[in-house]
Amino acid sequence: MKYVDEYRDGALARGIAATISAEADPARTYRFMEFCGGHTHAIARYGLEDLLPANVQMIHGPGCPVCVLPIGRMDDAIKLAENPKITLCTYGDLMRVPGSNGASLQKAKAHGCDIRMVYSTLDALAIAEAEPDREVVFFAIGFETTTPPTAVALQIAARKELTNFSIFCNHVLTPSAIRAIMTSEEAKRGEVMLDGFVGPSHVSTVIGTDPYEFCSEEFGKPVVIAGFEPLDVMQSILMLVRQVNDGRAVVENQYIRAVTPEGNRKAQALVEEFFELRPSFEWRGLGQVPMSALRLRQTFAHFDAELKFGMVTVAAADNPACECGAILRGVKRPEDCKLFGTVCTPENPMGSCMVSSEGSCAAHWTFGRFRTFARARSGERRSA
Amino acid sequence: MTIDIEQTNKTPSRPRHRKLDLKNGRVELTHGAGGRAMAQLIADIFAPAFDNAFLAQHNDQAALPMPKGGRLVMTTDGYVVSPLFFPGGDIGSLAVHGTVNDIAMSGATPLYLSASWVIEEGFPLADLDRLARSMGEASRAAGVPVVTGDTKVVERGKADGVFITTAGVGVVAPGLDLSGDRARPGDAVVLSGSIGDHGVAIMSSRENLEFETAIVSDSAALHGLVADMVAAAGPHLKLMRDPTRGGLAATLNEVADQSGVGITIAEDAIPVKPEVAAACELLGLDPLNVANEGKLIAVVEASHADALVAAMRAHPLGREAAVIGHAVADEHRFVQMTTAFGGGRIVDWLAGEQLPRIC
Questions:
Q1: Are B345 and A95 in contact (CB < 8 Å)?
Q2: Which CATH class is domain B19-172?
Q3: pLDDT tens-digit series, residues A154-170
Q4: What is the ipTM of this complex?
Q5: How many domains does chain A have?
Q6: How distant is the Cα of A374 from the closest Cα of chain B, in angstroms?
Q7: Cα–Cα distance list, A309 to A95, A167, A225, B231 (Å)
Q8: Domain range holding A104?
Q9: CB pairs < 8 Å spanning A and B
Q10: pTM (2 decimals)?
């Protein structure tokens, strides 16, 4: 596959791996957080851990939209779907996310709710047009990458004056999450030991590299914006190792084939037109994060499902044994959770990190759990 | 299938009725009511499509000669694929291939099929005729006749066009004992060809997912290939299985579970067509989880792997056959893969639903 295989070349990867091993200082440990679930998935799927020296460790970040959606919002979506007038359109990976009391959209669908899996916002629009008697709600989630398509849907809906289409908006912002990690209670206590970030890939095509400058300026952590292909990730790790070795902390761009410093201005303008900042939004694992999410502007309130259907989000607590929160903050690893692989598996997820293939628990379970057993056998500490 | 329409039409005491309108006609509830309309549907569509000596006896069952020696193998499978017609096949041919293959995976020679059709009211007779003829052609090509059958019609909205259930019987030669629990550490795992073709062909023709691809379903009857494999490796063959729903990943995990072994495979050794790889990339799927309908895996004693692969490559349906890995001792029964990138990973069962109604 042209333009894909080139970034999955095993021989090149072994070359970069050898350079990382040669340049990484054996006297220290390098702990880098890959922010995005896409990176987590690439690391697990291609087995990158096997190529890295033991003192270069990757910590999974909160960049998986499904994982950071709080239970309360999931309950909201299920409540919406239970309204017999409503057709709820959702991306497939939300179907199995557990809400309160083991509820999920998949179960609600089995009980007769009109829930349809779509591949794009345009599919939801088409349903609204084809079925004017139904109230079609699009369950919008995601970081800056998926916000512009939602804005496009709103633009079209406004132009066509659709009255039976609305958005349940859960769009969140990446830089706010990085800030939340760096300023968490654990970070203040020095428990979040990070030496740098493998920065977002697709998100950065939209917002550019400038919004991450605070990370190096305020917190002195290097950031390397990285593509989602395995060679991108390997090269970015090498770039991070070099920054650490040089005592530098700047934002570097490995993903130059798609990302510019200022990002995609058109997409940004479109988002600006339809959305505004929420003063605060709950993230799973991070709690309430100020200025971290978007809602529809007042002008488009008639497309806002929260207002249209008078929704009031009730915060719901996670299963007390579930470590998704600590894992999303980079404080714990999936195998540190008592539920991991015992009662919580991709078939029967207790926490959101076990649902999406980008979630750290699902990625580790699906692709990497043999390492947990190998570590256990060799007597190595499982917890980092 | 008990009424001879020719006789019906020629008998003076019975009223003549017009032939079914195979151009614009639709299936009506009366076509399943057990009356004359049903007899006509069977006589005009199914009887000519499946035409064989057992059906021609017009009994409610087929009385079949007893095979000499060996063991009888029986299987049944329901087909609910959507869409009914897809690149490289349709539900009619698929219902033959799938069941023939389930029989063949025991090393058996498939002998007879039954077919039970549940048809939705309003289904175009032209499509029904096309599907029945496709089933007939597939069964003749496979040399496995449909010897008995049934049709039911349900109200509009109670089914989706056509659902088909086929059952099959076959006979396995004495001395051949293929079973999912027989893989042992050291055995070789052989794959017959490229994976993911069927799933991608189906997805490319789904209403909300339509994309253009040259990929056609690999739907095919594998018993000819199996016969050559049995001839080449005989009792050294441990098991065979066709990786349908859940793909190669699910099949390897089933074998690992049943046999109590681990399996290691090499990503480099598994053929994936570029178009399939591209479609999977676009849709966020792993070809290892995507369905096949004309591929098989075999586990064979390592000493006979080369002979087996050579025999498979000599058959049109096994040209890309290769050893993709081995069974290993592993209490966790993990299926592990060395990625083309050089790292290791688990190949797991698919969690959740990748695509409903793939077969």
A1: no
A2: alpha beta
A3: 999 999 999 999 999 99
A4: 0.81
A5: 1
A6: 11
A7: 21, 11, 39, 68
A8: 1-367
A9: 73
A10: 0.87
